[in-house]
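Look at one such:
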Amino acid sequence: MTDKNLKITIKDVAAEAGVSFGTVSRVINNDIHVKPETRERVLKAMERLGFVANRQARSLAGGKTHFIGLLVPDLGTGYIGEIIRGIDAELTLQGLDLVLYTTHRTASKEAAYVANLAKGMVDGLLLVLPRNPADYIGVLTQRKFPFVLIDHQGTGKDCPAVGATNWQGGYDATEYLIKLGHRRIGFITGWMDLGCAQDRLAGYRAALRTYHIPEDPDLIYEGTFFQPDGYTGAMKFLDLPDPPTAIFASNDVMAMGVMDAVRMRGLRVPEDVSVLGFDDIPQASLVRPALTTVQQPLENMGRVAAQMLLDLIDQPERKVGRIELSTKLVIRESCQPPRSR
């Protein structure tokens, strides 16, 4: 095999087959959602370029595939996009390719994908907001297969994970609303099986306690990080006899759903209801009014996770734990002091 063949990448196959990079990744991973004719076209392009033989040769020569597996719950938000941006930037510097799976938060899919990728298809795994990592992390650890969890608490002090100061972010946001004069503050959670969602709720509750504001169970709505939850939760709050003057959503897309609900009721943001989010996705500064939110360093989380994984691949015996990156309150136009009632 020539040196030229050894440099063939997924991007070359995608160009040869006239498909996207993601489609080639799905064919490699035997994704059942790829059309038969598309799969055939990609496989023929691989054959013409010698891509399969190239991959085997690289693996046999250095014990590496030069692929990194990435599992994400979905691709529908700027949150995931910013994390992937950081991961891709770091891996591109190292000349590595991504193999992407979307789990749609289905536990069985998540475990099956991990098992498939860990059979030698990739050199390591990055998992964004994994749902049930305890189901397979023990096996990965036992096999010394490198992995890093992103925006997750990890499963123990030695579990490699990258996250943010979610509790502090929840506290800071709630304190900001309290200092503006709000006492009735609605809170919409994310998936409550995720540590980040639990920590944001805990930060909200801690701020209420600090300022001696009684917690009202009617002002907490359990969501799933999707925009319709923001709309539905806000509608529920606005139906209360004593509705909140501010609503804090556990992520920005739900906060945008809150804004839609407020407008649907003929009310205004922030004059009638202040709205606050979490993440600071790119769209947060583009909506009107621009969204006040807690900034997670999403792109940097992706970069740091990729760096951590590459270190683990190079030094399998290295011990790493959880890294927490700082959150920051970003004040824009969607919050103001409550109007007197």
